[in-house]
Amino acid sequence: MQTKVDAITLEVMRNALQSVAEEMGVTLIRTALSINIKDRRDCSTAIYSLNGDLVAQAEHIPLHLGIMPTIMKGILKVYPKEKLKDGDAIVINDPYVSGSHLPDVCIFSPVFYDEKLVAFAANLAHHSDIGGIVPGGMPINATEIFQEGIRIAPVKIRKEGVIDEELVGFITNNVRTPSEWRGDMEAQLAANNVGDRRIKELIEKYGLDHLMEYMEEIMNYSERRFLSRLKEMPKGEYSFEDALEINCNDDSVEKTIPIKATISVHEDEIVVDFTGTGGQIKGSLNCTLAVTTACVYYAIKAMTDPGIPSNSGAYRNIKVVAPLGTIVNPKFPAAVSNANINTSQRITDCLFGALAKILPDRAMAACAGTMSLFTIGGIDPRKDTYYSYVETYAGGMGAVSNLDGMDGVQTNMTNTRNTPTEVMEMAYPIFVTKYALIPETEGAGEFRGGLGLTREVVLLDHDAYVTLSTERSFTEPWGLFGGKPGAHSECLLEAPDGTRTPLPARMSKIIPANHKIVYRTPGGGGMGNPFSRDPKLVLKDVIAEYISPKRAREVYGVAINTETMTVDSAATEKLRAC
Prior knowledge:
The protein has 13 helices and 22 strands. The protein is an alpha+beta fold. The protein is globular. The protein starts with 6 loop residues before the first helix and ends with a helix.
């Protein structure tokens, strides 16, 4: 008999399932072995219904969260429900099923109650190495996915509670950091075990039929909220085009590929069409359809109603059209490893550009537009063992209609923390000589964009394989409504004698011992006319040494008395009158 659904019980059940996903995430982070998961928190956790629909997920990485609604459906095609048993766990990292790149390893565990399948506990974690031609599994110069690392099709890594040691041995035999891989994999299993336990506790408390019904109602609720917001939006067709930089290694020619999005707003659905986007390329910037779809889900949710619970119901009325063979939906076996880092961010920029025409009061200028990947791998001379350092560097956030963009922060499709300098230096044979915000990298505006940051890293006493993968090295994080663009990224190599030479924004190559890599990330775009900025805010940035008195005068039209560090109101009025 159907239970009557009421709002209070719905909210109680929604928060209960959300708490399960959150506790799974805490378990994964606290038990992981690699720095990339336990410090940077490059992972996500979720609960699915028995039909493979996303019901609840922890608030971790937007890109992960966006692809997770699609992964389970693909797994159930390989492992129908009747093939699953209590204690099983399925591992997968194949981008042409999971959607993400190879280092993102997903583990799904069926949850049984009284020998009946009732739900799935799942997580995704970015492993520090997955094999392939470069450490970290994200080679810039890959031309097909086989070069990017070991590809795991959906397979049971645990069968009725027993880990398949032969499979684990096969995988760890193909990665550079086998103990880390094993440790992180076991942390993922532990996280799912927590989800299994907590779901069973909810069944014991509320009853199986009650839980199953409210899983469905939670998704229906998200759908109703989205449709309610959709009815308020102006109907029509809105387009925006941006450019992705595609040159890499020592290619000095500035090349781009267009990414175009057309958003059609209807009474009962939103259609996002990427027709007009450039074709797939031979590099590793091709973006799987699942990641492209994740970008669409994120951008639309952020601009319509960020508070909608993230589950499959929130996306039922969003349709994505991405022509096969384009950089936003490549054909197998295209390389895809660096699309998560760069292409996803450019897709999101493009979507926000189109959405700004629909909802200008909620618009945001372009953020840094890249996750700015930095990986270093080699033999640690202190231990004579292989290591793999993986990190993405923050940049400037784009300004919004009433606030400055944040400085040095991960934005849009990523939400990782940084690796503390002390942790880096203890764990790896590297030395950090500088880690700071970069002055005058903001996009000027009535509300300015955020500052980019720089980190300078020396390789101590060993040659190492380095991968850099950033963006906006010659294109710009655009501003809106008169706002100026943020600053470009820049990468440099400094020899022991202090000589500096430019490095490509994207490269995978061996760097000699005791050389320094200087990594500078882009700033965020500004919002509105810079001459409309509150002079007090300009003065505040001068005092903080984010901008110089000269920039304050020339870009913002604000005269600063450098002796008293006050605004010269009369001079400012004259400057702005001109």
